[in-house]
């Protein structure tokens, strides 16, 4: 039990007022969506958890964000950690790898002529093994096309022309980034996906987690997930100004290094604090993306103006944000003064094998990979480009760039990088000698079929902005993967060794 | 009666339903609530809301006997089934078998004994002994599926990653059992062992070393695996109808 309970309202800190962060401007909030946005502006400092007598039966205690979201989805007024409940699902996502299996189970269990519970709540996003000659991989996308046609699935981001991704108007790319970009992530909702990094969407203040094919098959037929155990919440309060050389990837690697790959098993990881409030949505997504690497069930960040701006620009579906109560119980409290943190990496072969980037400067590397749901978003490429531009040098090792989605690819080619005199990421990457940004997909983050672009086919050392570095993750079993932020990856590309980005950014 | 309104929502559904009891309103015709059914947790963790077993469950012992295969800590899903094999669809019978042949092929070369011999489809090891955080990493259901397809019956580990545990239970492919000590340090690949699942005290008996280890009770996950996974279980309990005729 946490020894001190502080309201995790994002609006409480003095520094938040100084920076004018977080308070939603009334003009931005449509009245019809406003139902639960009356957030208390009272600043609560340290408060002991209110204890009620349990002698008379049900105890109305405060709930965490996750507990509230699940309670609402289970149509209950209250849940506590450990409860087993039926939960209504708002969105189910699947992709080319698990979709065929999930639908196969759905048909086997509910009948060949069965219809899905709601064809508008299922989002099918081919992204894993797309640009490959592997026949089974290609077949799996065809299988999903058939299912979507038959079931009238509204959101199917299809690809038919593998030779030119741009010839496919519907194709998006990496599912977790596409879900956000297409407005499927909304505060207060329950989002499930047949992929462990579904937890990424927790950045939007919703309950989002990964499930297997069988669970997904069940949801396809019923719209409910059976028996979700309500997880207790670990709270991570990150305060302080984010140093210019630090990114969200450094924060999450720091945390995973602290609590280990099983430190959050069966638990929720809730992130709050002034640093969190200062993060963009993409940075928040990076943070929540790796919650699963600590074993976490889900990650959440309290939604605020940053969230609402992002979401409201992409969907008109109404939503109801929720926040942890002031008297909610947290199973653990971790506090970080972010201004004191340094760039870190996760050394082979575990995401919790944390080390300071500067202490790994003697590690010679063979290649750099910038991509994936973790580190292949627009801002990730902007960051890498910014460092390359500041350095004005050429990379010393092959540097592979894999934009997560079509939109990211277009941003890389179209958006000017701040402070670079109008140059785009693509121009800067070319000048630095990087490989040409490739077709958007999950790419080599998880190895994939043998002909996957940038796959680790030899026992080489790779610095990567991806999320896992267990043996064989990117292909070769003896490959050595150093997980890092885009800044660290770019810096390392320039020196041919694992490199702290402060060598080039200050 | 809810059945008629549900039927109007989905005309393909033709079975009669018991009206929902205490359940929340729902649209799917595939759910029905039996007044005697209460949901069971999918975790061996004890919880204050644990619910009594239904009368339909067999109170039998289950025994697995065979060779052990010992691995270490943090065996992630990429080691259990490397991503390149995920193009195989587990619900397809031929591909299910193929998945089994690749089980644990991702383990580093330091594991001299392979779980499945090259050229074989099945394993000779029925019991996998693991350390902490077995099955961490991806949510790919191919992981417990390939172990079951290969012929493994049970995993005895110190702890599990939650998605792997849940997928094992949902599919009914392998029994995920918790040991109380680090059995992976005391057993060797090739040891002959028996796993006995009982109401109170499940055990792992290593016949080669002569040692016996208490296992944490399988708890309420047992009936789900016994029934053959979550769908079979939900049917047994009357939660969803039998697969509708085509």
UniProtKB/TrEMBL annotation, chain A:
It comes from the Eukaryota. InterPro entries: Acnase/IPM_dHydase_lsu_aba_1/3 (IPR015931), Acoase/IPM_deHydtase_lsu_aba (IPR001030), Aconitase_4Fe-4S_dom (IPR036008), Homoacnase/IPMdehydase_lsu (IPR006251), IPM_dehydratase_rel_enz (IPR050067), IPMI_cat (IPR033941). GO terms for molecular function: 3-isopropylmalate dehydratase activity; 4 iron, 4 sulfur cluster binding; metal ion binding. Keywords: 4Fe-4S, Iron, Iron-sulfur, Lyase, Metal-binding. Residues 68-496 form the Aconitase/3-isopropylmalate dehydratase large subunit alpha/beta/alpha domain. Pfam families: Aconitase. GO terms for biological process: L-leucine biosynthetic process. NCBIfam families: hacA_fam, PRK00402.1. This is Aconitase/3-isopropylmalate dehydratase large subunit alpha/beta/alpha domain-containing protein. It comes from Brassica campestris (Field mustard).
TrEMBL record, chain B:
Residues 1-23 are annotated as: Disordered. GO terms for biological process: amino acid biosynthetic process; glucosinolate biosynthetic process. It is an enzyme of class 4 (lyase). Keywords: Amino-acid biosynthesis, Lyase. Its EC number is 4.2.1.33. InterPro entries: Aconitase/3IPM_dehydase_swvl (IPR015928), AconitaseA/IPMdHydase_ssu_swvl (IPR000573), IPMI_Swivel (IPR033940), LeuD (IPR050075). Pathway: Amino-acid biosynthesis; L-leucine biosynthesis; L-leucine from 3-methyl-2-oxobutanoate: step 2/4. It is found in: Plastid, Chloroplast stroma. It comes from the Eukaryota. It catalyses: (2R,3S)-3-isopropylmalate = (2S)-2-isopropylmalate. Pfam families: Aconitase_C. Residues 126-172 form the Aconitase A/isopropylmalate dehydratase small subunit swivel domain. SUPFAM superfamilies: LeuD/IlvD-like (SSF52016). Heterodimer of the large LEUC/IIL1 subunit and the small LEUD (SSU1, SSU2 or SSU3) subunits. Belongs to the LeuD family. This is 3-isopropylmalate dehydratase. It comes from Brassica campestris.
